[in-house]
TrEMBL record:
Enzyme Commission number(s): 2.5.1.18
Gene Ontology terms for molecular function: glutathione transferase activity
Keywords assigned by UniProt, alphabetized: Transferase
Domain GST N-terminal: 1-81
UniProt-listed NCBIfam families: PRK10542.1
CDD domains the record matches: GST_C_Beta (cd03188), GST_N_Beta (cd03057)
Entry keyword annotation includes Metal-binding: no
Family matches, as InterPro entries: Glutathione-S-Trfase_C-like, Glutathione-S-Trfase_C_sf, Glutathione_S-Trfase, Glutathione_S-Trfase_N, GST_C, Thioredoxin-like_sf
Record has Transferase as a keyword: yes
Full protein name: Glutathione S-transferase
UniProt organism field: Acidithiobacillus ferrooxidans (strain ATCC 23270 / DSM 14882 / CIP 104768 / NCIMB 8455)
Domain GST C-terminal: 87-204
Length: 204
């Protein structure tokens, strides 16, 4: 398999899960501005939508959209318990949170990165995003992980999105529960490995 990624983007979550699952995989960096990969390939030919992540499977098929990719990977290694079993209520709880992270948090951050978005609109968006982060904080109260017991793919996605806050002026320190959670996730070897590989964490 090969993961197409951009450092710190939402492709970080499947990168983490590939590590957590013990998969053998290659990675190829994508320049999202030029739509070229580090080998000079036309990324639009791999994912016509032009964004990351994309996962090239061993049979040549390409899977896109982070929540789909991380569930696919989790189901390949059920013994790792990165997702509850298919058909259980717990699996639908996972889907519930993946949808929340995708639509309410991930897309909530998008206008804050847009250079042409008016300042007034960014203020409105930031306030809405703060309310959504408060929802996540309440969910995590008294828990180590988003679904309670055990690290899942939802934690990889949430960790990735929370990391964007420092780039757009949303300080996670406002929510001590989220700050502690970020610290907890960041110490996992699979997370450390992904951050280092993407140049987001220097070797000490």
């Amino acid at each position: 398999m090969k993961l197409y990624y951009s450092p710190g983007a939402c492709s970080l979550s499947p990168h983490i899960i590939l590590n957590e699952g013990g998969f053998s995989f290659d990675r190829e960096r994508v320049d999202l501005a030029s739509k070229k990969t580090e080998t000079g390939a036309d990324y639009a030919a791999i994912n016509p939508d032009g964004y990351v992540p994309a996962l090239l499977l061993d049979d040549g098929q390409v899977l896109t959209e982070g929540p789909a990719i991380i569930q696919y990977l989790a189901d390949r290694v059920p013994e790792k318990k990165l997702a509850p079993p298919l058909g259980t209520l717990e699996r639908y709880r996972l889907m519930q949170w993946l949808n929340f992270i995708s639509t309410e948090l991930h897309k909530g951050f998008s206008p804050l990165f847009h250079p042409q978005a008016p300042k007034e609109w960014k203020t409105v968006v930031a306030a809405q995003l703060g309310r959504r982060l408060s929802t996540v904080s309440r969910q995590l109260e008294g828990k180590d992980w988003l679904l309670g017991e055990g690290f899942t793919v939802a934690d990889a996605y949430l960790f990735t999105v929370l990391g964007w806050g420092r780039h757009v002026g949303i300080d996670v320190e406002q929510w001590p529960v989220l700050q502690a959670y970020q610290g907890r996730v960041s110490t996992r070897p699979a997370v450390q490995s992904a951050l280092k590989a993407e140049g987001l964490l220097q070797d000490t």
